[in-house]
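Human: For the file, kindly provide a plain-text protein record giving the amino acid sequence and the backbone structure tokens, at your earliest convenience.
Assistant:
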Amino acid sequence: MGKLALCLYNCIEMAEILLALLAVSRYVYLEPVLKNRKAQFIYGTAFFVFTFVVQMLPGIWEDIQITGILFFGVYIFLTRESHRIRGIFLLIPALGFLVGITALFYAVPYLVTGAYLPERENALLSDGIFWIVVLIFYIKGAGFRQRAAKESAYRQLGRWERNFLHGVGIFLFAVGSFLITIYEAGLSQDMSRFLTGLGCLSIVFLEVSAVALVQQGNKKGYFQYMTTIGEHYMRAELVHFRAYKEQEVRLRRFRHDIKNHLACLCRLSETGDLDRMRTYLENLEGELRQTDHAVQTGNEIVDAILNEKLLLAQAMGVSFSLDGNFSCEIEMQAMDICTIFANALDNALEELERSSAAKMDRKEDGEQQNGWIRLKISCQGKMACFVFENPVRPQKKIMPPGCTDKKNEKEHGFGLLNIAYVAEKYHGSMKQQIREEKEGSVYSLEVLVFTE
């Protein structure tokens, strides 16, 4: 085999190691990924160029297999938002899951035949099986990948889960290494085959159990979140129904008394008492205004959520303004609408409640307000854009989806993540920004959605 062909073969082998480690980090440890295709292309190109160059330059790097491990550490450093250095140590347990699977290619033939496969045949067998699995996963695994991304988006690994996986990975590393080198232990063949069989069972059991544990936790977190959203939606509907009934009662009362009001106005006009007539009309206008719905967007679900949040805003002294209506032809599921509007408004109200930004807006006469929330709805055909704005502290930083600046990180930070997921589901996007205006720093959340 020529040097060039050998270099290319080594690049492929290193790619196998890297892909396997990335699969463990993504589907076992729920680590983030490079979502930008451009970033993925640059990362993959850098890996292959680096792996190829270090082989073509003699004396630079003798153990080329370290490149897959090195780039795995680089990947973890690039994708994590925090604890990047500590995250690199994830390499050890992740490598254990890989060593455990690799050991099976040595152990199973020995367990069956009592002899190890030659190194070259073993490598070709493992390479072939690996790329067949990758090809099947790429072609047939789209549903699994989407479901895993959807379910894992609603939770993070708990401390005990992560520690358990660390322990499993380290144990698999030890068992796998032992099975690969068991022929050097000087044991009898019967004892070696017995220990090999026991080790194979342990590896298979632990590998399957670890994946099942994580996937089961993902499903549990997802259904818990959907239950929470359902409760939120039903609560908003109940508030909206009660408000609607109260408004209906006010309207019937107003209609019942309208003849008396008109008679009083006629008498005041006949006597020429314009001042009392003006005061009477102002009071009548106030009663008429109370018969209107607080918020009307053209969508019952949005109205239910906005009216619920409007009550909370009024209790906090927060002003609320709405520009636009939900008049487009876009069709969205009720849960998805609730996810966008409930999370966005909850985040705005929480920010105004827990920060000094709630005291930033002042009227010209010196009367202090408790902040404000602006909502803009723009619709055109099957496209809709929702913009939520509220004042924030000058030092406020934009938090990436899935992250939070609250104390209990594991219980928070999912609101924006869920909104981003819904936007992606409807072929749209989510954008955050903080801009400076006359009244101070203003946070803006823009959600764009489309339907086919």
Notes: The chain is about 65% helix and 10% strand. The chain has a mean pLDDT of 79. The first strand starts at residue 319 and ends at 324.
